[in-house]
Amino acid sequence: MTEPGGRRRRTTSTATRERGVRDARDAARHAADALSELIRHHLEGVSAVCRGEDGGWVVNVDVLEVARIPDTTSLLATYEVGLNPAGDLIQYRRIARYRRGAQDQ
User: Residue ranges of region Disordered (predicted)?
Assistant: First the structure.
């Protein structure tokens, strides 16, 4: 059904489908959004996404924790974010902290 202004109204089935996590890209988006609301740091990106044993998702999100000049000395961190199959945040924890300019070990 089209509403005035040419916009289509969502049906119940479409709205229900959008609540769950459909794929890894969707899981990454849900995890990044949930984490940004909690820690209030600038998100740098997602470095890993995998399925959890319970059917949920485990996502590693990289964030800028301390901005410095020069930028290569800024401190970043990787957070592991756990989502249930519906995409709700169930846990998060910082698993690494490093300088932007540091090479992988």
Answer: 1-27
